[in-house]
Amino acid sequence: MRKDRKKKFATGLLLVSSRIFEKRRASCFTNPDLKDFLEENGAKSIEFIGVDGNGCVRASVLAATKENYQVSVDLFAVGVANQKKFTKTLKQWQDCGIKIG
């Protein structure tokens, strides 16, 4: 995990942990530190929230299913810039058995 520069977060965002896992690609699973952390802590399920359901959230949700996690998405905490495209994303998630709430 890179700790060489101070992180900038959205105004009003409440940080509840000092564990921060950076990523450079859409899926959070491209960061091996996150994968190690989840494995070391015996994580079996993951709930996703995020800024764009069609971007990073979508990629991370689908990657989590491939990593054999039980996956859920809280739609009240997922932003959507393109609602028409998100309809297709939701269908894809449903087809993968992802719990959507």
TrEMBL record:
SUPFAM superfamilies noted in UniProt: Isochorismatase-like hydrolases
Endpoints of the signal sequence: none
UniProt xrefs under Pfam families: Isochorismatase (PF00857)
InterPro entries the record matches: Isochorismatase-like_dom, Isochorismatase-like_sf
Domain Isochorismatase-like: 18-92
Protein name (database record): Isochorismatase-like domain-containing protein
Organism the protein comes from: Streptococcus sp. SN-1
Phylogenetic classification of the source organism: Bacteria, Bacillati, Bacillota, Bacilli, Lactobacillales
